[in-house]
């Protein structure tokens, strides 16, 4: 028999190679994108906890003297930074007022499949703010 399609020789190989690359790229987006989402959730969780830890640094002397409930800003920043260190996270802490602590956490996650196309890591961040809300004052009957 005479081959009628001699010009098509090897076209399936090219198609399979392109399809495999496309599948790997989609898998990389799913797997590495999921890892980035998990890193962002972790960063937000750590930021929330660090802000809460900082907001527990109440200025006791001001409260005992009958003043408003407020944080000791230096102690709050130190407590939040201590929490970040214990969690193994990098971030910035600011006492934005006498009642508020803000924390921003940045993380980087190494890629598995996207590194095949030169994307070796993805960044993720999370932020949180904790604010003191004084309780209700009780009046004497």
Please give the count of helices.
3
Strand arrangement, largest sheet?
A: 1-2-3
Please bin the fraction of helical residues: 40-55%
Tally of DSSP β-strands: 3
Q: Which structural class do the helices and strands define?
A: alpha+beta
Strand content: 15-25%
Rg for CA atoms: 27 Å
3D structure, described in words:
This protein has 141 residues and is of the alpha+beta class. The protein has one domain. The N and C termini lie far apart (109 Å). The radius of gyration is 27 Å and the shape is rod-shaped. The chain has helices spanning 11-55, 60-64, 73-87; strands at 90-97, 100-110, 121-131.
Descriptive keywords:
141 residues; alpha+beta; 3 helices
Q: Quick recap of the structure?
A:
With 141 residues, the protein is α+β, with helices and mostly antiparallel strands. The protein has helices at 11-55, 60-64, 73-87; strands at 90-97, 100-110, 121-131. The chain has one domain (12-131).
Give the arrangement of secondary structure elements.
Layout lengths: L10 H45 L4 H5 L8 H15 L2 E8 L2 E11 L10 E11 L10
Antiparallel strand pairs: 1-2, 2-3
């Amino acid at each position: 028999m005479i081959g009628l399609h001699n010009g098509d020789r090897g076209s399936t190989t090219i198609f399979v190679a392109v399809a495999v690359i496309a599948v790997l790229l989609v898998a990389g987006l799913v797997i590495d994108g999921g890892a980035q989402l998990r890193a962002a959730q972790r960063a937000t969780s750590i930021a929330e906890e660090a802000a809460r830890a900082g907001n527990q640094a109440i200025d006791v002397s001001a409260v005992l003297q009958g003043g408003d409930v407020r944080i000791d800003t230096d102690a709050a920043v130190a407590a939040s930074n201590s929490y970040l260190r214990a969690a193994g996270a990098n971030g910035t802490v600011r006492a934005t007022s006498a009642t508020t602590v803000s924390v921003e956490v940045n993380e980087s996650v190494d890629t598995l499949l996207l590194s095949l196309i030169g994307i070796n890591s993805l960044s993720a961040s999370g932020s949180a703010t904790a604010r003191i809300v004084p309780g209700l004052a009780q009046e004497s009957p």
